[in-house]
Write a structure and sequence with these properties.
Layout: E1 2-3, E2 18-19, E3 38-41, E4 47-51, E5 61-65, E6 70-73, E7 89-92, E8 98-102, E9 114-119, E10 124-130, E11 135-137, E12 140-144, E13 151-155, E14 158-160, E15 167-169, E16 174-179, E17 184-191, E18 203-205, E19 215-221, E20 234-240, E21 248-253
Parallel strand pairs: 17-21
Antiparallel strand pairs: 1-2, 3-4, 4-5, 5-6, 7-8, 8-9, 9-10, 11-14, 12-13, 13-16, 14-15, 16-17, 18-19, 19-20, 20-21
Length: about 260
């Protein structure tokens, strides 16, 4: 396992890499799925949890313990198929330690619209909601501490209609919001002079959120367009603290 110090600015293309674990590295377990899974930090900063991934496995949850530099799979004591998916969107609540996995593809490459909650402390999972627009894969999601329990903000990806007769890229002039406390979905428009083109498999991150912030900047990087051509733009979505009056302008960043 390797690390970069992202608090520093670099101009040299060869970033200094620090090895974690006294100069050693940790090999992944042979059974650990490596494509399209979710790697999320545990709230206590002692390691990571890995959810889903391809090839689909019955041991679809793995923990990495940073204190012992070891990884172990968790036997499925919950519904076996909850997290046997890949290429979904994911986020974790630092408030509760609950991870969320939205959509993805199953063993038969069939898209799903399940929103799965996985409690990293109790180590169990359940399907808590269905994506209202149909099935979705290749999208991105972040957690923001808005409302009493936080919200999940989802963008981009492929949406297959509930009737299953059409699969289209998710428009980028709207964001899909799941309010955890009320178990409700909302669609909020964005604004800006130019919205990004529709895309899938982009990277979307936000600085570590805290309840004292008045707004957040969600950074969107890359992805692929409708022709599956790679994109290299960097965009930012400025999100105000009151999601009930969402007015989130896009603006393109240059680096």
């Amino acid at each position: 396992m390797f690390s970069f110090d992202l608090t520093k600015s670099y101009t040299n293309p060869e970033l200094p890499v620090e090895e974690i674990g006294n100069g050693s590295y940790v090999r992944k377990p042979g059974a650990l799925a490596t494509t399209g899974g979710a790697i999320l930090p545990l709230p206590n900063n002692t390691g990571f949890v890995h959810l889903g991934g391809f090839p689909v496995s019955t041991s679809s949850v793995w923990y990495y313990d940073a204190t012992t530099s070891s990884a172990a799979g968790i036997s499925s004591t919950y519904e076996a198929n909850d997290l046997n998916v890949y290429n979904g969107a994911y986020a974790i609540s630092p408030l509760t330690g609950v991870a969320y996995y939205l959509g993805g593809l199953d063993l038969n490459r069939k898209p799903t619209g399940n929103l799965v909650a996985y409690d990293t402390v109790k180590r169990n999972s359940s399907v808590i909601s269905q994506f209202p627009l149909g099935s979705i894969h290749g999208s991105s999601m972040v957690f923001l501490p808005l409302g009493s329990q936080g919200i999940l903000v989802n963008m981009a990806g492929f949406i297959t209609s509930t009737s299953g007769d059409a699969t289209l890229l998710n428009p980028m002039d709207k964001v899909n919001i799941y309010d955890i406390a009320s178990s409700s979905w909302y669609t909020q428009p964005t604004s800006g002079q130019n919205n990004p083109v529709r895309r899938s498999y982009m990277c979307m991150v936000t600085p570590t959120p805290n309840a004292a912030q008045t707004h957040w900047e969600m950074v969107l990087i890359g992805g692929a367009n409708a022709d599956n051509s790679p994109l290299d733009e960097v965009w930012a979505l400025s999100v105000p603290s009151k999601y009930q009056t969402f007015n989130a302008p896009f603006f393109q960043q240059t680096y």
